[in-house]
Amino acid sequence: MASGLLLGGAVAALVTAAIPAHNPSSFVDPPPDKIVIDVATVNGSGCPAGTAAVAVSEDNTAFTVTYSDYLAQVGGSSNPTAFRKNCQLNLIVHVPSGFTYAIAKADYRGYASLQSGANAVQRASYYFQGSSQTVFKNHNFNGTYNDSWQATDTTDWAQLVWAPCGVQRNFNINTELRVNAGTSSPSKVSFMTMDSTDGDLSTIYHMAWKECPGK
Question: How far apart are CA 171 and CA 136, in angstroms?
Fold first, then answer.
Protein backbone atom coordinates (compact mmCIF):
# COMPACT_ATOMS: atom_id res chain seq x y z
CA MET A 1 0.00 0.00 0.00
CA ALA A 2 1.37 3.43 -0.91
CA SER A 3 2.20 5.94 1.77
CA GLY A 4 1.18 9.58 1.81
CA LEU A 5 -2.44 9.14 0.79
CA LEU A 6 -4.24 12.50 0.80
CA LEU A 7 -7.65 11.77 2.26
CA GLY A 8 -10.48 14.03 3.42
CA GLY A 9 -11.21 13.10 7.01
CA ALA A 10 -9.54 11.59 10.03
CA VAL A 11 -8.43 8.38 11.67
CA ALA A 12 -8.82 7.59 15.35
CA ALA A 13 -8.40 4.96 18.04
CA LEU A 14 -10.87 2.93 20.04
CA VAL A 15 -9.60 1.96 23.49
CA THR A 16 -11.84 1.24 26.46
CA ALA A 17 -9.51 2.18 29.31
CA ALA A 18 -11.23 4.72 31.54
CA ILE A 19 -10.26 8.40 31.50
CA PRO A 20 -11.84 11.39 33.26
CA ALA A 21 -15.37 11.92 32.01
CA HIS A 22 -16.02 14.46 29.27
CA ASN A 23 -19.30 16.23 28.80
CA PRO A 24 -20.84 15.23 25.45
CA SER A 25 -21.58 18.91 24.85
CA SER A 26 -17.83 19.42 24.43
CA PHE A 27 -17.93 17.37 21.21
CA VAL A 28 -17.70 19.56 18.13
CA ASP A 29 -18.42 19.16 14.45
CA PRO A 30 -15.53 17.53 12.59
CA PRO A 31 -12.96 19.98 11.22
CA PRO A 32 -13.42 20.90 7.56
CA ASP A 33 -9.71 20.61 6.70
CA LYS A 34 -8.40 17.66 4.77
CA ILE A 35 -5.63 15.72 6.47
CA VAL A 36 -2.81 13.50 5.32
CA ILE A 37 -2.82 9.85 6.36
CA ASP A 38 0.55 8.20 5.86
CA VAL A 39 0.31 4.42 5.93
CA ALA A 40 3.60 3.63 7.65
CA THR A 41 3.34 -0.16 7.58
CA VAL A 42 0.86 -2.90 6.73
CA ASN A 43 1.85 -6.29 8.11
CA GLY A 44 0.16 -9.63 8.57
CA SER A 45 -1.01 -12.81 6.92
CA GLY A 46 -4.48 -11.33 6.47
CA CYS A 47 -3.29 -8.31 4.47
CA PRO A 48 -0.55 -9.21 1.99
CA ALA A 49 0.95 -6.31 0.07
CA GLY A 50 -1.66 -4.50 -2.01
CA THR A 51 -4.71 -6.15 -0.43
CA ALA A 52 -5.69 -3.55 2.21
CA ALA A 53 -6.84 0.03 1.62
CA VAL A 54 -7.80 2.97 3.85
CA ALA A 55 -10.41 5.54 2.80
CA VAL A 56 -12.00 8.39 4.78
CA SER A 57 -15.53 9.78 4.49
CA GLU A 58 -15.99 13.26 3.06
CA ASP A 59 -17.73 14.49 6.21
CA ASN A 60 -14.86 13.43 8.51
CA THR A 61 -17.09 11.21 10.65
CA ALA A 62 -15.83 7.76 9.63
CA PHE A 63 -13.14 5.87 7.78
CA THR A 64 -13.04 2.39 6.29
CA VAL A 65 -10.42 -0.30 5.92
CA THR A 66 -11.11 -2.70 3.06
CA TYR A 67 -9.45 -6.08 2.68
CA SER A 68 -9.42 -8.30 -0.41
CA ASP A 69 -7.54 -11.35 0.87
CA TYR A 70 -8.43 -11.70 4.58
CA LEU A 71 -9.48 -15.36 4.96
CA ALA A 72 -8.95 -17.85 7.80
CA GLN A 73 -9.91 -21.49 7.33
CA VAL A 74 -9.47 -24.96 8.76
CA GLY A 75 -10.29 -28.52 7.68
CA GLY A 76 -10.06 -30.40 4.41
CA SER A 77 -6.85 -29.57 2.55
CA SER A 78 -6.39 -26.22 4.32
CA ASN A 79 -2.84 -25.14 5.11
CA PRO A 80 -2.17 -25.92 8.81
CA THR A 81 -1.30 -22.25 9.45
CA ALA A 82 -4.42 -20.88 7.71
CA PHE A 83 -6.64 -21.19 10.79
CA ARG A 84 -5.41 -17.78 12.03
CA LYS A 85 -4.97 -14.60 10.01
CA ASN A 86 -4.09 -11.14 11.30
CA CYS A 87 -3.37 -7.64 10.10
CA GLN A 88 -1.68 -4.65 11.74
CA LEU A 89 -2.02 -1.19 10.24
CA ASN A 90 0.37 1.48 11.49
CA LEU A 91 -0.94 4.91 10.49
CA ILE A 92 0.61 8.36 10.76
CA VAL A 93 -2.33 10.73 11.24
CA HIS A 94 -1.95 14.47 10.73
CA VAL A 95 -4.86 16.12 12.58
CA PRO A 96 -5.99 19.71 11.87
CA SER A 97 -4.51 22.12 14.40
CA GLY A 98 -6.60 22.60 17.52
CA PHE A 99 -8.54 19.34 17.29
CA THR A 100 -8.31 15.87 18.74
CA TYR A 101 -10.31 12.72 18.11
CA ALA A 102 -11.43 9.33 19.43
CA ILE A 103 -13.38 6.40 18.09
CA ALA A 104 -16.82 5.80 19.56
CA LYS A 105 -17.75 2.74 17.51
CA ALA A 106 -16.21 0.24 15.10
CA ASP A 107 -18.24 -1.99 12.76
CA TYR A 108 -16.76 -5.15 11.27
CA ARG A 109 -18.31 -7.21 8.50
CA GLY A 110 -17.53 -10.41 6.69
CA TYR A 111 -18.77 -13.87 5.77
CA ALA A 112 -18.44 -17.15 7.66
CA SER A 113 -19.13 -20.77 6.84
CA LEU A 114 -18.69 -22.88 9.97
CA GLN A 115 -19.42 -26.60 10.17
CA SER A 116 -21.35 -28.05 13.10
CA GLY A 117 -18.94 -28.17 16.05
CA ALA A 118 -16.57 -25.54 14.63
CA ASN A 119 -16.16 -22.03 16.02
CA ALA A 120 -14.46 -18.76 15.17
CA VAL A 121 -13.44 -15.48 16.79
CA GLN A 122 -12.93 -11.97 15.43
CA ARG A 123 -10.60 -9.85 17.58
CA ALA A 124 -9.50 -6.22 17.40
CA SER A 125 -7.29 -3.89 19.42
CA TYR A 126 -6.36 -0.23 19.05
CA TYR A 127 -3.60 1.88 20.57
CA PHE A 128 -1.48 4.96 20.10
CA GLN A 129 2.28 4.60 19.73
CA GLY A 130 3.92 4.66 23.15
CA SER A 131 0.67 3.97 25.01
CA SER A 132 0.30 1.04 27.38
CA GLN A 133 -3.49 1.13 27.02
CA THR A 134 -4.34 -1.80 24.75
CA VAL A 135 -7.73 -3.47 25.08
CA PHE A 136 -8.87 -6.45 23.04
CA LYS A 137 -12.44 -6.85 21.84
CA ASN A 138 -13.58 -10.39 20.98
CA HIS A 139 -16.64 -11.58 19.05
CA ASN A 140 -17.35 -15.33 18.98
CA PHE A 141 -19.24 -17.36 16.36
CA ASN A 142 -20.34 -21.00 16.54
CA GLY A 143 -21.28 -23.52 13.85
CA THR A 144 -23.44 -24.43 12.20
CA TYR A 145 -23.18 -20.96 10.57
CA ASN A 146 -23.32 -20.01 6.90
CA ASP A 147 -24.06 -16.33 6.43
CA SER A 148 -22.72 -12.79 6.51
CA TRP A 149 -21.62 -11.58 9.94
CA GLN A 150 -21.31 -8.18 11.58
CA ALA A 151 -19.70 -7.26 14.90
CA THR A 152 -19.69 -3.87 16.63
CA ASP A 153 -17.33 -2.49 19.28
CA THR A 154 -18.89 0.42 21.17
CA THR A 155 -17.23 2.72 23.71
CA ASP A 156 -19.24 4.94 26.05
CA TRP A 157 -18.47 8.65 25.69
CA ALA A 158 -17.12 8.78 29.26
CA GLN A 159 -14.50 6.14 28.41
CA LEU A 160 -13.16 7.52 25.15
CA VAL A 161 -9.38 7.84 24.96
CA TRP A 162 -8.40 10.90 22.96
CA ALA A 163 -5.36 11.39 20.77
CA PRO A 164 -2.80 13.64 22.52
CA CYS A 165 -3.15 17.30 21.59
CA GLY A 166 -0.15 18.80 19.82
CA VAL A 167 1.80 15.51 19.73
CA GLN A 168 2.27 13.24 16.72
CA ARG A 169 1.60 9.64 17.70
CA ASN A 170 1.20 6.77 15.24
CA PHE A 171 -2.06 4.89 15.50
CA ASN A 172 -2.17 1.09 15.36
CA ILE A 173 -5.12 -1.09 14.40
CA ASN A 174 -4.70 -4.82 15.03
CA THR A 175 -7.31 -7.31 13.80
CA GLU A 176 -7.41 -11.09 13.84
CA LEU A 177 -9.59 -13.92 12.55
CA ARG A 178 -9.26 -17.40 14.07
CA VAL A 179 -11.20 -20.52 13.03
CA ASN A 180 -11.14 -23.67 15.15
CA ALA A 181 -12.29 -27.09 13.92
CA GLY A 182 -13.60 -28.05 17.36
CA THR A 183 -15.61 -31.25 17.07
CA SER A 184 -16.38 -30.83 13.36
CA SER A 185 -15.28 -33.40 10.79
CA PRO A 186 -11.61 -32.87 9.79
CA SER A 187 -12.58 -33.45 6.16
CA LYS A 188 -14.96 -30.47 6.06
CA VAL A 189 -13.76 -26.89 5.60
CA SER A 190 -14.82 -24.03 7.88
CA PHE A 191 -13.79 -20.48 7.03
CA MET A 192 -14.28 -16.81 7.95
CA THR A 193 -13.51 -13.69 5.92
CA MET A 194 -13.10 -10.04 6.88
CA ASP A 195 -15.04 -8.26 4.16
CA SER A 196 -18.59 -8.03 2.93
CA THR A 197 -20.21 -10.59 0.66
CA ASP A 198 -19.60 -8.40 -2.37
CA GLY A 199 -16.07 -7.42 -1.31
CA ASP A 200 -16.88 -3.73 -0.93
CA LEU A 201 -16.70 -3.02 2.75
CA SER A 202 -14.77 -4.48 5.62
CA THR A 203 -14.59 -2.19 8.60
CA ILE A 204 -16.05 1.20 9.55
CA TYR A 205 -14.66 3.34 12.37
CA HIS A 206 -16.92 6.13 13.67
CA MET A 207 -15.21 9.20 15.14
CA ALA A 208 -15.89 11.78 17.82
CA TRP A 209 -14.17 15.18 17.76
CA LYS A 210 -13.44 17.89 20.30
CA GLU A 211 -11.34 21.03 20.48
CA CYS A 212 -7.99 20.97 22.24
CA PRO A 213 -7.44 23.25 25.26
CA GLY A 214 -6.42 26.76 24.29
CA LYS A 215 -7.85 26.62 20.78
Answer: 15
